[in-house]
Amino acid sequence: NYVISESSLPDDRIIGIDQCAEIIMEKFINFENPLEKLTSLKPIEFEWLIEELYKWMGYETTWTPSTRDGGKDIIASIKRPDGNEIVYVECKLYKTTKLTIKDVRNLHSVITNDKVNRGVIFCTGYVNDNLGKFDSRIQIWSYDTINVLLNAHLGINWAQRLDIVLDNKKRELARGKSLADN
């Protein structure tokens, strides 16, 4: 954006800025953490991690316990200048399983019935590209995109800090339970 706004920069400066941006992207954003870090989690822990990601992206979140989640694991909302956005998030922690059209249709039904802006499926397993064409309001993010999002918002060392993130969520849930008991 800086290069675009400063159209009078000499070519060598423009090249230098572009090279710096490329280095930053490769070192900090496109850095690949091992998929095994995610697939070693329990499904509930994967949901907590994705909820944390949405918090870091500025959303208010509600994690829905699996017994009554109605086809969504996380409800994320944010106030934007053009209106409020509500996103239903479904987390699929698969090692070898494929995401199916049934999974996409289930989320489609829920966002349609609840009149929600959009839905997102985070899937660590195989995702057929055609599934993403089912409904433009549903985004399907596979491991490559999940890794980039986690790197960009939680830092490239998110994989080393997983225990801290999960312990914080456990404490948060325990506090909420003890408050509800009182």
Summarize the structure.
The chain is 48% helix and 17% strand.
How would you describe this protein?
The protein is α/β, with parallel strands linked by helices and 182 residues long. It contains seven helices and five strands. A five-stranded mixed beta sheet has the order 1-2-3-4-5, with helices on both faces. The protein is globular and about 65 Å long. A hairpin with a 2-residue loop joins strand 2 and strand 3. Helix 4 (43-56) crosses helix 7 (162-181).
Biggest beta sheet summary: 5 strands, mixed
Low-pLDDT windows of residues: none
Strand order of the largest sheet: 1-2-3-4-5
Helix residue percentage: 40-55%
Rg measurement, Å = 19 Å
Q: Describe the global form.
A: globular
Q: What structural class do you assign from the helix and strand content?
A: alpha/beta
Multimeric state of these chains?
Answer: single chain
- The average pLDDT score comes to 85
Task: State the helix count.
Answer: 7
Ends apart, CA distance between termini: 52 Å
How many strand elements? Answer: 5
Beta fraction: 15-25%
In sequence order, what are the helices and strands, one letter per element?
HHHHEEEHEEHH
Q: What's the arrangement of secondary structure elements?
A:
Elements: H1 2-5, H2 11-29, H3 35-39, H4 43-56, E1 60-63, E2 74-80, E3 83-92, H5 101-113, E4 118-123, E5 138-141, H6 143-154, H7 162-181
Parallel strand pairs: 3-4, 4-5
Antiparallel strand pairs: 1-2, 2-3
Helix pairs in contact: 4-7
